[in-house]
Design a protein that fits this description.
257 residues; alpha/beta; 2-enoyl-CoA Hydratase, Chain A, domain 1; Lyase 2-enoyl-coa Hydratase, Chain  A, domain 2; 2 domains; four-stranded mixed beta sheet; 49% helix; globular; binds octanoyl-coenzyme A
Length: 257
């Protein structure tokens, strides 16, 4: 049975890590199931995806420590490479992915949230990169994505100390976009996904691509990427229909994608 659920909810999809008995810890099996769910999202192309954890306590409490405890260097390299491949596939989904962080997001769990485009946290969410306390470094992108998101100095403090960050601090340092009451998290995350799904899907995808590809380049190259993405939206049905409706002061048609 899969440890990762996939629900098609109209124009959006929800992926849920479902291993609550181990606080949704990422074992090899969970990573492979997550990979399957990402492939399904690629095939079915929802307009936005929400990623969350099952049970009230944890988003994901990390990579599976029991599985890692006896790993050789070779085994650890393979495990790290698997996690990075799967998280990169998640990050490179063409549609926006929202992490709904419903509790502990520790180690690999924090890294999983970092691989999403946006993060909404419940008031009970707790973030940390506790790896140095276990004698290892982060292995699923934490040293890179955390530093890119909140800046190297803040990231290094969290990475060097393993200190826990509550939801309000996570908001203050830009680790999450928004904090909501625990009971509202699911609805708020789906509402945000629906709001994105109401926009022109090709334009949303092109915007995600422009931000993500551009961030890896110098500004001139990045602006050329933006121009290419901008131009790619023209002559699409949604662009001609939406702009035509504006010019002719008509109600716009729903976007087709
Ligand atoms: N791995 C495996 N099992 C876990 C994990 C985990 N990360 N987290 C929790 N569990 C299990 C517990 O063992 C326990 O199982 P059981 O009931 O069979 O004993 C069950 O989940 C419930 O957990 P607790 O009883 O501990 O619940 P508490 O409420 O007492 O504590 C905590 C909750 C604080 C979240 C605690 O469970 C904890 O500290 N968990 C570990 C957190 C952690 O250190 N995470 C980081 C792991 S390192 C990592 O993620 C590195 C990623 C990159 C790896 C790359 C490798 C190459």
């Amino acid at each position: 049975m899969s440890t990762v659920g996939y629900e098609a909810l109209g124009q959006v999809a929800r992926i849920t890590v479902e291993r609550p008995e181990a606080l949704n810890a990422l074992s090899t099996a969970v990573l492979l199931d997550l990979d399957e769910a990402i492939s399904r999202a690629t095939r079915e192309a929802p307009r936005a995806v929400v990623l969350t954890g099952a049970g009230g306590k944890a988003f994901v409490a990390g990579a599976d420590v029991a599985e890692m405890a006896g790993m050789s260097r070779l085994g650890a390299a393979a495990f790290g490479a698997l996690g990075n491949r799967v998280f990169r596939a998640l990050e490179q989904l063409p549609m926006p992915v929202i992490a709904a962080v419903n509790g502990f997001a520790l180690g690999g769990g924090c890294e999983l949230a970092l691989a999403c485009d946006l993060r909404i946290a419940s008031e009970t969410a707790v973030f940390a990169q506790p790896e140095v306390g276990l004698g290892i470094t982060p292995g699923f992108g934490g040293t890179q994505r955390l530093a890119r998101l909140i800046g190297p100095a803040r990231a290094k403090e969290l990475l060097f100390t393993a200190r826990r960050v509550d939801a309000s601090e996570a908001l203050a340092i830009g680790l999450v976009n928004r904090v909501v009451a625990a009971e509202d998290l699911s609805d708020e995350a789906l509402a945000l996904a629906d709001r994105i799904a109401d926009q022109a899907p090709l334009a949303v995808r092109a915007t995600k691509a422009a931000v993500d590809l551009g961030l890896q380049k110098d500004l001139d190259t990045a602006l050329a990427i933006e121009t290419a993405q901008f131009a790619s939206c023209f002559e699409t049905e949604d662009q001609t229909s939406a702009m035509g409706a504006f010019v002719e002061r008509r109600k716009p048609e729903p976007f087709k994608g």
